[in-house]
What does this fold into?
Amino acid sequence: YRFVIKEVEYPEVVKAGETVQISIKIENKGVAPIYNKLPLKLRIKGEETQEYITDIDITKWLPGEYEEKMTVVIPADMPEGIYELQIAIGGGNKPFVQFANEMERAEEYFTFGEINISE
It folds into this structure.
């Protein structure tokens, strides 16, 4: 497997307490799927950090392109500010999988954009 993030869509500005939909297009440019069922995680990182573990089964990403939609709720008490949007596969006590993109990395997370949270 070789996972490449092709495109990401999300609102640039959201309010604390809102539900946000993030759409991500990923291509497996490898010749096989991943066989380990690892979590696909999202993180909003800034003044405070919020992590979300999705229920997406990445073992179904055979060679080819996939679009995944994730819905997250921004906590109502999240402070205003610019936050990094980050994504990871595995990590923690599970194996960590890198994306093939050139992206900034913090721990096992890759930053793919910014979001402005307002009150």
Q: What stands out?
A: The longest strand covers residues 81-91. The beta strands are 3-9, 13-15, 19-28, 40-45, 49-53, 64-73, 81-91, 94-97, 105-106, 109-118.
